[in-house]
Amino acid sequence: MEPCEFGGRGTVWSYSVADFPPPSPHRYDEPFKPYAIAVVDLDDGLRLVGQMVDPPEALSVAARVELVIDALHHEQDKTFTTWKFKLV
Amino acid sequence: MQEVAVLGVGLHRFGKTGDAIVGNKSVTELCRHAVDMALADAGVAWRQVEAVAAASSRFSGGKGWGLNGNDVVEDIGSTGIPVYNMSAGCAAGGNAFNVGYSMVAGGLYDMVLVVGGEVMPKGMIQTSGIEDPNDREFLRQRCIGFPGPSFWATLARRRMHDYGTTEEQFAQITVKARRCAVGNPYARFQKEVSLQEVLASPYVSNPLRLFEICPVSNGAAAAIICSKAKAREFKRKPVWVASSAVATMTFEDSLPRGLAGPVPSGPSLHTEARAAVSRAFERAGIGPKDVSFTELQDNTCYYELAFPEEWGLCQPGEAERLVAAGETAPTGRMPINPSGGFVSFGEATTAMGVFQIAELTWQLRGESGARQVPDAKVGLAQTLGLGGNATAAILKR
To answer: What's the complex ipTM?
Structure first.
């Protein structure tokens, strides 16, 4: 195996919306706010899942997106971050 | 290989904890009902059963170890027979049937009980059972926030893009499913719903709505299977197992099960389900055109469109038209889930593979009443479970 670098841009293969608070082991901030999750084909050949920072109604299949770092949830004084996608 | 017969089947009607159907019955009580019914249906006494192939649950019974078959034997009678507890997520019932079938076909036993039962916790199924950073299902939930129903919604959304499928077309499948369940004494939901009611139900994961995703249910199912020679000793006319197959997903699968995978060169589909079904066809020497009806795992109505196409029962992109024309109803050319399916029963996870065997058996005997597929000769059953597990079985008259 060799290390492989992936660029941050890709195309939305499909997406969905978490309309209800999901059960554990999911984590989210209260009050729960529905969010979109995209399945993205990165230009370099990796299919990756991630939340969208944009609202669900802004999204469409085949939209161009890029990777960003954003907060997933907060616990006590800590911010837990993850990768997300943002519309280009 | 010996020919294998289904001699008797039994079900406990599906329901929800606390309702008038299952009340507070334990999984042991639900299984007892299903097993007693299957034994009586077959005309077999408990002492004649030589082994048990049971579905392992992580939600109920089994002493927390998935020893659900041992629960059944302790409850009905400790005759000392071997017990095999099969774990395959929601495919466990299908897996137990496959193991029971294989042991009879291979000549190890002549009479086997296959059983599965569940008392489910309320709400969305918590698919990942442990907080293990090596478990990609756990990582997908904890690090991304990608819940189970969104997996199905992602596939449904992609189909809308590929084939122009509308939300009304998804809703129409639920309307058909619930119509099938009217008069099915074992279904949890036995009332029709209108297209308007389905479309008025809230999104669980857009584009899929509450009435388009199966809830969890409590229930149990049992089947008595035996060798051809053994079947001759009983009055009950057997239904024959043409084949039973198990498969797991392959590398090119590319569905969003974990965090990441390679972009596929071909279509994105459930490779485990397609492999199990095509193996079942090959082993039976039966093709998609010979199938009278199918009971498939409709956790959501999306699968009633995608699976028949992926398995060659119809052409890609054709399913919406077949649904609209009534061809997937029991009286149509390609009946899908005449029982009413998971959408009408709810999912008693590990019981489902055995529930399908019961419905196939009744259909092939011509005992299915209002939901009867006319002149049903060959039935196909399929399950899908966490971990990339799938099973398929073909039964014939």
So the answer is: 0.96
